[in-house]
Every structure is written in C-alpha cells, then in structure tokens.
Amino acid sequence: MILLADKGTTMRTSLITAALTLIPAAAFAHTGAGEPHGFVSGFAHPLGGLDHILAMVTVGIFAWQLGGRALWLVPGSFVLAMAAGAALGMAGVALPFVELGIAASVIVLGGIVAFARSAPIVIAMGIVALFAIFHGHAHGSEMPLEAAGATYAAGFMLATALLHAGGVALGSAIGRVADGRAGYQLGGALVALAGLAILANTI
C-alpha cells in the first residue's frame, strides 16, 4: 500500500513538474521574442505573452474536464482555427478587437474551468476556435519580416500544442492532488482575474 501511494505521489509530482516547465515567466506584452527566423521565432511567440499562455493552458484543462474525445478535439480545434487566424494576420487582413478578443478568451475560459461548465463537444470546440482566431491573428501579424511563413507557423503551432498538453497534465494533477472541484474553482478564478487585468491594460 505504501509503495502504491509513493507511485501515485511520484506520478502527480511528475505531471505538475511537466506542466510547469511549459509555463515560463512571461510579461503581458507580446514581445516577439526569439531569433528572427522561422521556426524558433514562431515557437517563442506564444511563450512571450502571459495572455497566450493562460488561454492555451486553460484550453487543456477544459479539455481534461470534458474528457473522452474532447481531450484531442478541443485542443485540435484551437490549433486549426489559430492557424486560420494566423494566415489572415500574415496576409495583412485586418481583424478588429484582436487584443480584446485575446483578453476575453482568458476571462471566459477561466470562468468555464472555475464553474466546471460541461458542454457538448461541438459547442466547446466552437468556443475555443472562436478565441483561437484572435490568438492566431496576433501570431501572424507579429511575424518577423525575416521569418518564413510555413516554418514560423509550425513553430507556434507546436508551442501551442505543448501548452495544451501541459494544461491537460495540469488538469489531471489538480483532480488527483486535492479536491478537484475546489482546485478547478481556484485555478479558473485566478485565470479569469488575470484576464481582467489584461483587459484593463488593453482598454
């Protein structure tokens, strides 16, 4: 019994550690950090803004809460819609209220996780896809001039997928380490509050 408990503790610790290593210290501003070429710059971009990190990790937690096929369908819909938004940004197509949309995504996703709102998978996919367009547009419009579009896109899509995976791992850890409902409520509320702070800086 002690051995089983130790294995469970080790697994939980590993999940939390894996999730936290995907969340670097980041500033609110989009810095476009990274070397100004292709993949590296694209990979770094989602990690350079707290708003992006919070939204993408929270998508993973939301997917974990829904469970089943949502574990890959919800993050997958985010990545695909983000790619579409990025294509618009790279092409110079204007999209209104991008920063407001990004801030709103953090608030809404945090609220959904806090209140453990279940939804049909199609609705969940639609919600995250809508917000993903704004995140993608920010990535695309802020692409360095020297970067190649395809490799830049591959970089930020991979970074996004890893953040989603971190969110899934974190969602699993929250549910296992303590009272899952209380953990989700606290985490979701903190994310939503951070979203309000981001919104205040945006308006």
Describe this structure in words.
The chain is mainly alpha-helical. The chain has one domain. It is built from eight helices and no strands. The chain is globular, with a radius of gyration of 17 Å. The termini are far apart. 45% of the residues are buried. The N terminus is likely disordered.
Q: How is this fold's topology laid out?
A:
Elements: H1 2-21, H2 38-44, H3 50-66, H4 70-90, H5 98-114, H6 121-141, H7 149-177, H8 180-202
Helix pairs in contact: 1-7, 2-7, 3-4, 3-5, 3-7, 3-8, 4-6, 4-7, 5-6, 5-8, 7-8
What are the defining features of this structure?
203 residues, mainly alpha, disordered N terminus
β-strand amount: under 5%
Assign the structural class, choosing from mainly alpha, mainly beta, alpha/beta, alpha+beta, or little secondary structure.
mainly alpha
Q: How many structurally independent domains?
A: 1
User: Could you tell me the mean pLDDT?
Assistant: 82
Question: From N to C, what is the helix and strand string?
Answer: HHHHHHHH
Taking the alpha carbons of the first and last residues, their distance comes to 55 Å
What's the number of extended β-strand segments?
0
Largest sheet: none
Question: Count of helical segments?
Answer: 8
- In helices, the fraction of residues equals over 70%
The gyration radius over C-alpha positions equals: 17 Å
Q: Show unreliable segments.
A: 1-36
- Morphology call: globular
